Amino acid sequence: MKLTTLALNNIKRNFKRYVMYFFSLSFSVFTAYSFFALMQNEYVLMAFTYDDRYKSLLINFGIIIMVFVMFFLLSSNNSFIKARKKEISTYSLFGMTNGKIGKLLFLETMIVGITSLIIGIGVGIFFSKLMAMILLDISLASFTGNIEFTISMRAAYITAIIFLTIFCLMGLSGLRVINKFELIDLFKAHRVSEGRSKGSKIVLILSILLIGIGYYLATNSNSMIVTMSAIPILLMVISGTYLFFWGGLPKILNIIKSNKRNYYKGVTLISTSAFSHRMKSIGTVMATIAVLSAVATTAIATGYTLYSNIEKNTYDVVGYDMYFFGGHEEVLSDIRTTFKAYGSEIVNELTIQSYMSSPRVNMTIDENSIFNLGKEVYFRVYSQSMYNKLASICKCNYRPAGYIKLGEAMYIHGYRFHEIDDKVKGQQLSFTDKTLTITSVSRFKAISFGVKHTIIINDDDFDSLIDRGDIRDANEKGDTYDKVTLFNYKNSLTSRKLNKELTQILSENTKGFRTAYTNYDESLQSFGLICFIGFFMSAVFIMMTASLLYFKQVMAAEDERHQYKILRKIGMDEQVEKRVIRKRLIPVFLIPLLVGIVHSMFAMKAADTLVFSNIIPVDNSYFRVLLCSAVMYLTYAIVYSVFYFVTKDQYSRIVK
Amino acid sequence: MEILKVQNVSKVYGSKKSTKLYMALRSISFEVNEGEFIGVMGASGSGKTTLLNILGSIDKPTTGRFFMNDRDITTFSKKQLARHRMDNIGFIFQDYNLLETMTLKENIILPLALVGHKANIIEEKLRKIVNDLGITEVLEKYPYEVSGGEQQRAAACRALIANPKIILADEPTGNLDSKSGKDLLELLTYINRDYRATILMVTHDVFAASYCQKIMFIRDGEIYNELYAGENKREFFDSIIDVMSVLKGERK
């Protein structure tokens, strides 16, 4: 029999085992091809002309993915070979040299590899248009262009070369594994423990301590401290995670074992002992998966949170679809005709006069603070009714409502420091013959229109202060302050052309303007790409880690098969067996997933301190971040549970 | 008192469509009384392991029925069978069949844990039996850390701990050196006498068989002969050899 025939027969016979292997291999090829094709796609290249850093971002991301894919393929290949120990030793027993066995396995790897390479690239080509469209759709505000279906030969070429190299490496590392086999192991293989570990209390405490300190630092609300300690946090949490799986979890299992009342229940006894028996060999894998899950869930949650808040964030900054200073009549009529020409309707329109005032403030000046209410401070002043009008048509999320009594004032600012609240609250604003007290402070960036300090006061106070000349609509030279005109209109975020036209008119005829579209488009380009990469990376990580667990468990099933045989003879019925299998497998999937998600929750807290609290101007932005992240955690959990069920199915079939 | 009654049990291997049918057991009938120590002998392929598997309700007979305490086991559902194995039968296997993921102690209490006994009851039963069989010292060790004899004794403990009605032993001395083999046989005799356990042992080792009170010889799926132990062990041993040589001689 020729070696090739033997290799083909082996694959045919082991087809069930190979299905998952085929699947994950094809998926990694698909990922790689799609990625390279995207980088070659001229539409994508055109769309990101603005910025070179996107390209470098994509390249870096590509390298990370490839390294990970290689790690995954090598380790799953090795455990695959180990699972076939018996078969390989039999060849050896009949006098096949290691070199020849290596050649046989190499042939098998190549047959499987090239098949999945073809499938992967084929699927990649099939979906390449879709991938490009998704990327452009999520990272451009108004993507309407049509992408043609293209086959990127270059991408296919690069993918093939990279994977053929990886397959060769797999063949070599397979040979190394074979050389390590001792024939005698065949006959006592499952007699020896794979490495039971008793665990140690110290390691358990140390790991919890390390992770705990990392978490504690991550939850610090001072962004400076969080930035400074980012690397220590990473080191502590990662080493803590590994220690936990190496020494902590075995200790916990031992503690479970010492609780006799619980442990002496048949199902717990069997599954716990089987699990702890494998602890050493699977500990490292579980820890790696927990860390990778944390990275992946954080990436995906960050991307999703950023992305789902772009629109809200746009309005939190800009507030209205468009506003400009200096309301000339011609500009208004030009704008109106433009709206008509592009078929957009005006939803709200409001023009208000700006009023300024500079009351005396007795506030101690803190030199170091960015925020200062000095002596010569100008406030923009709104009367209660003006403010209500402005707030009612503002499109941002958080519009502080306030009923302001006589003699009181509400202070509005655009900073995100909560310390301001305490500093400013209770301050006295002294006008010529009147003193107002600041009773409430709110952050509301959208209505300040470029001014640092804004106050809102009671209508009657407002009128009397205007009469006294304390609030003025003109400066000392007599020039009136500019009027502000706001517009909300339909299709504000979808029509690129309308925005272009409006921008042209406004830049020629006004003193200053802003449109929501411009802001939105900029954010989308940068966040959209990050988000896309996050999704892509997470998808790869999820698939690879989950199938790695699958492989490990299927291999274990081969070893554990005879145990189930014994147990059945003792009198374990089918229901108990099902429960044993469930209890045996659930922790393998659940523990890394939970650890990963908890890590990610704290990472999101740090990200919230650094980034999101800036972007999301809600009092408790972490809550919103968690809500967005939860969507992704759930997705992750769903994928894992699908893999769990596939694994359980296969495991039950093997041990039957 | 009769504990087990086998009536016309046959076992046919091979599918019904194919012409190549293999009769492993041909209409076997016999009875086992409480407290008996019975040996089943025969050449390999004679059907003795098939018989043991059927009695242990791991396998099902093709035709015929057998009763334990007047209950027809062949009519049991899968779930009832599992329960029946747990309550009534203790197994001792040739290769011990201890789970290597568990300590000896955990292995021994497994049958009780599966039934769901309380922890303190389990501990109590365990203490008594391991004391009797002398493996208290090595309880916390794993199977591969102790000697073959200790593993075999642990397997015997596991078979005994649930107070089964009958203990089925499949070539229990097969893997042991002569010293350990003799120890085990003495252990089985001790169990039979002091625990009043009914034992059915499959073996092809004449020395092992000479410890039994009664021996059934099986040939080509049928009971060929029966022998009862007399006063003299030496005589019994010789007559077993005689029957065995006749058995082998006729095969030629």
Number of helices of chain A: 22
Q: Give me the CATH fold name of the domain at 2-78 and 88-97 and 164-251 in chain B.
A: Rossmann fold
Instruction: Please state the oligomeric state of the protein chains shown.
Output: heterodimer
- Strand tally of chain B, please? 10
What is the SS-derived class of chain A? alpha+beta
- The fraction of residues in strands of chain B falls at 25-35%
Largest sheet of chain B: 6 strands, mixed
Strands of the biggest beta sheet of chain A: in what spatial order?
A: 4-7-8-6-9-5-3-10
User: What is the 3D form of chain A?
Assistant: elongated
Provide the structure class of chain B: alpha/beta
Can you summarize the main beta sheet of chain A? 8 strands, mixed
The most extensive interface between chains reads:
A-B, 29 and 38 residues
**What percentage of the residues of chain A does DSSP assign to strands (E)?**
5-15%
Quickly count the helices of chain B.
Answer: 8
Q: Flag low-confidence runs of chain B.
A: none
Q: Provide mean pLDDT of chain A, rounded.
A: 80
CATH hierarchy: architecture of the domain at 2-78 and 88-97 and 164-251 in chain B: 3-Layer(aba) Sandwich
Give the averaged pLDDT of chain B, no decimals: 84
What can be said about this structure in brief?
The complex is a heterodimer of chains A (656) and B (252). Chain A is an alpha+beta fold and 656 residues long.
